[in-house]
Amino acid sequence: MRKRIRMCELTKSSLTALLLGLLAAAAARGADPVKVSPETMKVMGTVDPRYQSYNIEMVEVTGGRFWAPYGKAEAAAVPTARPTGGGAPGLDPRLFLQRPPIDLRNARLRKLAGSLGPAYVRVSGIWANSTYFHDSDDPPPAAPPAGFGGVLTRSQWRGVVDFSRLADARIVTSFAISPGVRDASGVWTPAEARKLVDFTRSIGGEIAAAEMFNEPNFAAMGGAPKGYDAAAYGKDFAVFLAFARKNLPAMMILGPGSVGEGGMASSWNSIRTSDLMAASGRGLDAFSYHFYGAVSKRCAILAAAPQSSPETALSEEWLSRTEREEAFYRALRDQYEPGKPMWITETAETACGGNLWASSFLDSFRYLDQLGRLARRGVQVVAHNTLAASDYGLIDEESMTPRPNYWAALLWRRLMDRRVLDPGAVPAGGLHLYAHCLRDHPGGVALLAINTSRDAAQELDLPGSSERYTLTAPDLLGTRADLNGRELKLQEKDELPSIEGSRTSAGRVRVEPASISFFALPSAGNAGCR
Known about the structure:
The protein is of the alpha/beta class. The chain has helices spanning 2-30, 58-62, 73-76, 107-114, 154-166, 191-202, 230-247, 273-280, 316-319, 321-336, 362-376, 404-415; strands spanning 34-35, 43-46, 52-55, 64-67, 96-99, 119-123, 131-134, 150-153, 169-173, 207-211, 252-259, 286-292, 342-348, 381-385, 416-421, 431-438, 445-451, 458-462, 466-472, 482-483, 486-487, 502-504, 507-511, 515-521. The chain is globular, with a radius of gyration of 24 Å.
């Protein structure tokens, strides 16, 4: 009898869920579509032409220990000296993978990166804070000199310069600040920075922008001398600013490059960015910060570290974290460097290499929604971490094949102009709508419609015909992405597949659950896009 009662309860529960689902679907069908008026959308602002950018970590360039992709932990336990600042303290060393230097001459990597240009390539990260530049064509030392944790060779940096040129990706970097670059009183000197700058110039390269160093609010974790504080940062920044203005007058000075104070790391013990800015004074050309909504499961050991999950990956609470963090750092920008542009020089699904689903189609919703939100808020550059390392890379580091976020990035690059439009109010319910001028089509408009609902379709009412580019996946947690129902994958000789839209008539268009659609309207006639 008990079994029969439980069976009945289960059946009743299932029927209730089915009924609610049918009612929701019926309500969605009966709801008025969101009316879109591309012709009259106002220009809200503009972003940098290289708005969508990416990171290659310095430790990738030099070779060393970086976050091991999930499933590679057993291969990560290679006995090796931990670089200064080379990973958060207390973490299992098996979470890191000892890597050879990335091959920036790889033809497939260059082709894939070049298709995302123009962009910025940021070569930095926590390991850059303690990297020694071996300014000689002689073999590098077997171990880093005292006060450093890694060695960068001329050949490796030349590879960065060549890659940046061929991929149309201007270089953004940072400099060593570890004990090896300090004078007798402990103040930073430009000795290492000068070597790198002079060599870059000698081979025809250019550093477009730089932060003094990576994430100064966690300076102790990043290889700074023991006891480093805001006052020390102020003294160091004064020397750095004078050096940069004299030797690199065309280089943008970014900073401070802090992370997490408005969310992920708000309860952690760190140097406050407000204290850093008060100690350093003005001098930045752009205010930069890093954003991660949480840490990956690798770093769950860290105190009060927020986590994410596949179940919450499409929630408004998760997606809106990027706006809350931006608001926190915008307030600091307004107080200490009013009017300066804002850059995010590092962001991804989560810190510490990304979760397993960072490489899946599920994360493409966050990736594109973040680009849309931040462009609308006036952020000028968003640099994804990384191009091709660990689980959050746009490209798989072993096969050098595109992941779903790469295809999402490619569509953004081909369709979304730097002019940001106001799409108008959108009712709550899972539909996220963003609009830009259509790239290379005067007067044209590009719409990005993201449906984060897993079970309810949405509808738009478009006044004219369009070319539609819809991204879906047979499995949200899989690494396959389909464009208009056809799988996106590299063709023979590593050629990109044809990226073609589907002709869509004016009127109601349906945006399916858990799908992403771009609509190109070249004949919109928007005055702000001419």
